[in-house]
Amino acid sequence: MVSLISPPSSSPSIQLRETRFFSTLFIPPRSVRFLQNTRNNENHKWKTVRCGVTSAGASPPPSLMKEPHKFFDHVIITVRAGDGGHGAVLNHREKNELEQGKTKKKGKGSLKRDFDGSLILPTGGHGGDVVIYADEAKDTLLEFHNKSRYHAKRGGNVGAMGVLTSMLRDGLVAPTMRIPVPVGTVVKSKRGKVLADLAQPGDEVLVARGGQGGISLLEMPQRQRKKMMALTTNVMRDDSDKILVHGQPGEEVKLELILRVVADVGLIGLPNAGKSTLLAAITLAKPDIADYPFTTLMPNLGRLGGDPSLGAGMYSSEATLADLPGLIEGAHLGKGLGRNFLRHLRRTRLLVHVVDAATESPVNDYRTVREELRMYNPAYLERPYVVVLNKIDLPEAKDRLPSLIQEIMRIGNRDAQLSDETDTKERKLEDYPRPLSVVGVSVLKGIQINEMLKEIRSALKKCSGSSETLIST
Ligand SMILES: Nc1nc2c(ncn2[C@@H]2O[C@H](COP(=O)(O)OP(=O)(O)OP(=O)(O)O)[C@@H](O)[C@H]2O)c(=O)[nH]1
């Protein structure tokens, strides 16, 4: 396999063309770094990389061009609950003891009996159930690409076959298999039915039930059998009237796990706009930052500290920020990082739209992303947002900052809400709300960071009650 990390500088340059990366479920994050998008052109071009293997250049496999990242926040797993343990076929030592049931005193050595005196025979242990639960310590579904089958333990069998004694115990019940997933994971059945939306830490769902343990039978001469059947109550039969000594099989199900990030603020913008740098500048998150698009493969999360001006109440203004991978034209159709990442916006209540103010046309870039949101789900354009014009340390950005702010403020409607009667297809960007504010910064050089934070915090305050989790995506 081609090595993609720290390639030796002396090695010959090649074009990345390892199809193996992409035909398996797990796509190593670094490999995708080399897919380069030309902004105003939907074609992708391949960046030449240096690495340790000599190989001829070739274009990337067509399958990769379509939807290369579709597995990163979406995975199919198979879980199987444990089978029930087996019961046993037992002999009875003293045949008369069976009949003495009602009269014999209960003591240490006596056999277990039901209230009517009938014998209770030991059963096999219940197979382990499978539960999926939301764990704060998890933040990706990547591990499920490496391991997609989970099997809970089977229940224990009733001791050895042999003589029925009071020492015989039920088989051990198998422990429940608990599978941790990131908070915000939606669990769906194979047919697409939502089984659970694990939105809070600790939320859980039972996805497969373990099999019931088998029962035990007493073996005895034909002449006594009738009597025994009358005396034992726990004889189970299946549909074909077979007595169930064997444990029942555990359920097996195929599940779809979909991760949606739970964040207050979603950072959006074209690739390379500086979203990851912004997140690193104002939170403790350490996202990958690099000078090529699609550095961000999984949404990075960062916690924005509370507003110090609120004094003791500052913690109430803490917020989680999600750095969502760069949007490109056609993202709503699955291009670039595509729809899978757009759906992470679902739970955010504020969007921070990051624009590289040093590109040829920042306003066009801004419109491209707004347009993508509109095509994906126009409801996102109604969501409150702040525009951050980044990279004002660069002269080309600094000089035109005032005119850029004006132009962006002109795109949009003053009224926050549009009437429902307007057909969403007919609405242009101009018909949707304007940003709450537009601020120029350099997140890399730390210019105007405090002003930006002030705007974000004040916007968060304004939309504190509007958790729009109901947008369907
Ligand atoms: N000059 C300058 N460069 C910046 C600034 N902010 C970010 N950059 C650079 O822009 C490049 C892209 O930054 P990222 O933060 O990775 O961009 P991104 O929007 O997260 O990119 P994706 O992950 O592809 O969506 C990096 O080389 C950064 O160092 C800034 O304020 N000024």
Automatic annotation (TrEMBL):
Gene3D superfamilies (UniProt xref):
GTP1/OBG domain, P-loop containing nucleotide triphosphate hydrolases
Q: Which GO terms describe its biological process?
A: ribosome biogenesis
InterPro entries according to UniProt? G_OBG (IPR031167), GTP-bd (IPR006073), GTP1-OBG_CS (IPR006074), GTP1_OBG_dom (IPR006169), GTP1_OBG_dom_sf (IPR036726), OBG_GTPase (IPR045086), P-loop_NTPase (IPR027417)
Give GO MF terms, alphabetically: GTP binding; GTPase activity
Key words, A-Z:
GTP-binding, Nucleotide-binding
Q: Where is the OBG-type G domain?
A: 263-461
Q: Which residues form the Obg domain?
A: 69-262
Q: Name one GO cellular component term.
A: mitochondrion
Record SUPFAM superfamilies: Obg GTP-binding protein N-terminal domain, P-loop containing nucleoside triphosphate hydrolases
- Which named protein is this? Probable GTP-binding protein OBGC2
Instruction: State the species of origin.
Output: Vigna radiata var. radiata (Mung bean)
